[in-house]
Amino acid sequence: MPFLDHVLQKPSYGWKDDNGDLIKPSPKQIFSEFFKRLNVFKDQRNWLPFFSWLKVACLIPFFFVFLFAHLSWWTVLAAFIYSMIIMGTHGTIWHHRFSTHGAFKFRNPFWRFFTQNLTINVIPEEIYVISHHVHHAKSDQPGDPYNAQAGFLYCFLADVNHQPIAKDLTENSYNRVKSLMKHTGVTANTYAQYQKWGSYVNPTHAILSWVLNWSFWYVVFFLIGGHALACCLFGAAGFWAIGVRTFNYEGHAKGEDKQREGIDFNEKDKSINQLWPGIVAGEWHNNHHLYPKSARSGFKPYQIDLAWCYIKMMHKLGAVSSYRDDKKRFDEQYHKPYLDAKK
């Protein structure tokens, strides 16, 4: 069986039926799977998806403290900028373009660590990276871990139901997982540790990184603006952590055909370019599916790409040693032929 067909833990309702068609589970099936996979008492190998949602739960109190004790025009503005722009752009830079696609390379581990911890730690790299490789290989097909055609809940709870790596990988398959994650700098479990914990990352390392990251940023925010700013921005991170789970459902047009001529050139799946995610986070999703390894996905003049601005700036500073930019290829292969055909 091809590696990407079995690297993710298959949900109890399966990916496809006997005819090869996508299985669209009911809300009851999805929630049942969700809570089963969060049960660390039944199986300690469920720890990573549980840990991922534990961080979200820990951010929610900050949001309510901000909402009821520190609400003002400046904290609302700060929360908006931090959640919509800073967290969103960082997710595109770190999880998407670097960790998954290797669209650029850091000069040394220091700059990699610096970029990794540039915001409040929320999403485990392992859950994002491996499943995203599968997403690109099977986009909008059965086996796509966040297939929008299966509905909102299918995508929203995918980080628990569909994205964790399988718990029964052979040592050879696990080594392939390690090869996909090695450049991120996240310390890997040995195969024996993987068999015990069911994950690439070790719980001790993940928890220590989380505690240090959150402690550092709370102190920084407190020194800048007291508990008001700290609670505001931690609450904003919680808002983003929930909101980002809706992106692939929206970014693949809710499973419908909403691609527009002259805007969405990749017709192999249902991905679309959206103005808001593009401007605030550099997520021009249809462009990205055309050239997934490009460090830039905002190809047209109006397609602002803040993630690309960061990568380009870091390259000029010497922190990024190399990157791939497919804008020229996009212009030559798609945009110019389209304009010529319209004349």
UniProtKB/TrEMBL annotation:
Membrane spanning residue stretches: 47-67, 73-94, 216-242
UniProt feature coiled coil, ranges: none
GO cellular component: membrane
Entry annotated with the keyword Disulfide bond: no
Alphabetized UniProt keyword annotations: Fatty acid metabolism, Iron, Lipid metabolism, Membrane, Oxidoreductase, Transmembrane, Transmembrane helix
Pfam families linked: FA_desaturase
Membrane topology, as annotated: Multi-pass membrane protein
UniProt-annotated location(s): Membrane
Residue intervals of the Fatty acid desaturase domain: 72-293
Major localization listed first in the record, in broad terms: membrane
Any one Gene Ontology BP term: fatty acid metabolic process
Keyword Lipid metabolism attributed: yes
GO MF annotations in UniProt: oxidoreductase activity, acting on paired donors, with oxidation of a pair of donors resulting in the reduction of molecular oxygen to two molecules of water
Entry similarity comment: Belongs to the fatty acid desaturase type 2 family.
Protein name: Stearoyl-CoA desaturase (Delta-9 desaturase)
Natural source organism: Sphingobacterium detergens
UniProt lineage: Bacteria, Pseudomonadati, Bacteroidota, Sphingobacteriia, Sphingobacteriales
